[in-house]
């Protein structure tokens, strides 16, 4: 793995870019019209425009992000948080495109999205949990 596309903006993207630099990975920022001069764009080794200022036209467009990763020949995609980070379908699309997904497996994202399922998994794994209605 040499090139990582960060599918996010702002401070989280900057922190991921900093980590990429420390680990000697080439960082690729994505940006919308409104973020073209953003700090994450300036800090990254490379940047790619992915659409209009509205999130649904850019940062929430899984197809545009995967297209950008392919264009940049990225080996991996790091979602950051928010936007598509908790979207199991996006994670699967990334994997299906032959790109490394830096995050939980799609089925884990689904499981953790349901509080009851997540709690049951934690209990089965002997992880400490906060007392709740079922204790």
Written description of the protein model:
It is built from six helices and five strands. It has two domains: 101 residues, Rossmann fold; 32 residues, no CATH class. Helix 1 links the parallel strand 1 and strand 2. It is elongated. 40% of the residues lie in helices and 16% in strands. The protein is α/β, with parallel strands linked by helices and 135 residues long. Strands 3-2-1-4-5 form a five-stranded parallel sheet.
Unreliable parts: none
Rg result? 17 Å
Indicate the structural class.
alpha/beta
Calculate the mean pLDDT score and round it.
94
Number of strands: 5
The portion of residues assigned to helices is: 40-55%
CATH topology of the largest domain: Rossmann fold
Q: Which CATH C-level class of the largest domain is it? A: Alpha Beta
Number of domains as seen in the coordinates:
2
Distance between the termini: 45 Å
Strand order of the largest sheet: 3-2-1-4-5
Can you summarize the main beta sheet? 5 strands, parallel
Please report which band the strand proportion falls in: under 5%, 5-15%, 15-25%, 25-35%, 35-45% or over 45%: 15-25%
What is the N-to-C succession of helices and strands?
EHEHEHEHEHH
Quickly count the helices: 6
